[in-house]
Design a protein that fits this description.
65% helix, 3 strands, three-stranded mixed β-sheet, globular, mainly alpha
């Protein structure tokens, strides 16, 4: 039990050293990096080495999930298809994300959550051109999963009367906020171990083997902490988990996972985080001397809250928790808990457990979505008047209409390499002004004013 994880870590280190170092880690940050920085191009070796290395790490006892490597493997397959075809970077990104969503959908039987995690984590846009292919890929993978593995929820739960959910909603809100703090601590613990390994005077190829020592020793004291541990999640969601299992997950499993993943081995974060969050919720049920049904309910709340807080994907967490359990009556308290957890982690963590990995590589990433401010400003609102009368019937090759958005004008200026555009009145076809880069900046100033200027509008005439 002690030496097998060490051998597994050594094999992963050798594969990373002589194959590709992109197989290190939990997969999703690597997919994001490929999308944003590498034109959605993934090395073909990743499609083979990533699942094999993850299988070795988990099969030798690693306390990881398979979902991150599967998402990266599916993304690599989609990227390879995009590299063989004559497509744009945006279209190649869509293929990569479609493969990643299909991988998650096939793993957990969560087609809708797979679509949402693609939007919240990978696509960086919400457009029909990308959402429709991703949705089709996710649904197709879920359909084939039914034929191969059968239908039904991945984790069954005992039936709970809806009246219980109404009375426990407030408790769910506070539990979600507390688990947000736990999520932040888990992320910091994992990266603290990663910093510890960075200070070792050994090549990183040997680090996963050292991480295997922690897995083996932890397995001696808590054997159920080895491997993916879906059976532990199932027991938590049945409300039948003994206190020894709950405490073992919170202490041994969390330390084994953080230490070994910090060593740079190959493995996912989703299943361990779900298990730890579920254990926190089940512990709350034990302390409240609740029934088995209520303990199962709190385990579900903890599971979703941990996912929402640690990954920064509250909508995905809500839908994922419902899809893996089919516990639809839990929608309201689960939503409250996941949003509370997300709020807490957003306040105390500058980045999620995924984007922190990219930040440490020098890529500071934000995932706050909003409408482009230039889409809300018309050209005529920020154009400059003409300093001289234009020649009669003279229309330059590049121009912007006065009633078009400044975003469209900015795209013309960027693609054509010009710093100013004549503005044409659409009704008459005559040049009526000029739009410069300074005008575009005035359009951006509108959004800054909207965010910072505080006004009391009662009795204020906007016209």
């Amino acid at each position: 039990m002690v030496f097998v994880p060490i051998v597994g870590g050594l094999l992963v280190g050798i594969m990373a050293r002589f194959g590709s170092d992109k197989i290190r880690g939990h997969g999703i940050p690597e997919a994001i990096e490929a999308i944003l920085l590498r034109r959605a191009k993934v090395d073909p070796k990743i499609a083979i080495l990533k699942p094999v290395s993850a299988a070795i790490a988990i099969g030798s006892g690693g306390p990881f999930g398979a979902e991150g490597p599967i998402i990266m493997t599916g993304g690599a397959a989609g990227s390879l298809v995009g590299q063989w075809m004559h497509v744009t970077d945006a279209e190649r990104t869509t293929l990569l994300v479609a493969g990643a969503a299909a991988g998650m959908s096939a793993t957990f039987a969560t087609p809708l959550a797979a679509i949402l995690i693609a939007v919240e984590l990978l696509l960086f846009e919400w457009r029909p051109r990308s959402l429709v292919p991703v949705a089709i890929a996710s649904a197709t993978a879920a359909l084939f999963r039914v034929y191969w593995l059968g239908a039904g929820p991945l984790f069954a739960m005992p039936a709970i009367a809806e009246v219980h959910f109404a009375t426990l909603s407030v408790a769910s809100l506070f539990l979600g906020a507390f688990i947000g703090i736990v999520a932040a601590l888990m992320s910091r613990m994992m990266y603290a171990f990663e910093d510890l390994f960075e200070h070792l005077h050994l090549h990183w190829m040997w680090w996963p083997a050292i991480g295997g020592i922690g897995i083996g020793l932890g397995g001696l004291f808590f054997p159920r902490g080895l491997g993916v541990g879906y059976e532990n999640i199932a027991e938590l969601l049945q409300g039948s988990a003994p206190l020894a299992l709950i405490v073992g997950i919170l202490l041994a499993k969390s330390l084994m996972w953080a230490f070994s993943l910090g060593s740079g081995t190959s493995g996912g974060v989703l299943a361990p985080l779900l298990m730890i969050g579920g254990a926190v919720g089940a512990l709350a049920g034990h302390l409240a001397h609740a029934s088995a049904e209520t303990q199962a309910f709190f385990a579900l709340i903890g599971m979703g809250s941990m996912l929402a807080g640690s990954l920064g994907v509250p909508l995905t967490a809500i839908l994922f928790s419902l899809e893996v359990t089919h516990c639809l009556p839990a929608l309201l308290p689960l939503s409250m808990a996941c949003i509370a957890s997300y709020l807490v982690t957003a306040l105390i963590m500058p980045r999620s457990i995924l984007t922190e990995k990219l930040s440490r590589r020098g890529f500071h990433l934000t995932r706050e979505y909003g409408v482009d401010p230039l889409e809300l400003v018309l050209v005529r609102e920020v154009m400059s008047p003409l300093t001289a009368d234009p020649p009669a019937n003279a229309l330059p090759p590049f121009y912007a209409y006065d009633d078009s958005t400044t975003r469209g004008a900015a795209e013309i200026m960027a693609t054509e390499g010009v710093e100013a555009l004549p503005v044409v009145e659409r009704a008459t076809g005559q040049i009526c002004g000029e739009l410069s880069i300074r005008g575009l900046l005035r359009g951006r100033e509108r959004s800054i004013e909207r965010e910072n200027e505080r006004l009391r509008l009662f009795g204020y005439d906007l016209d």
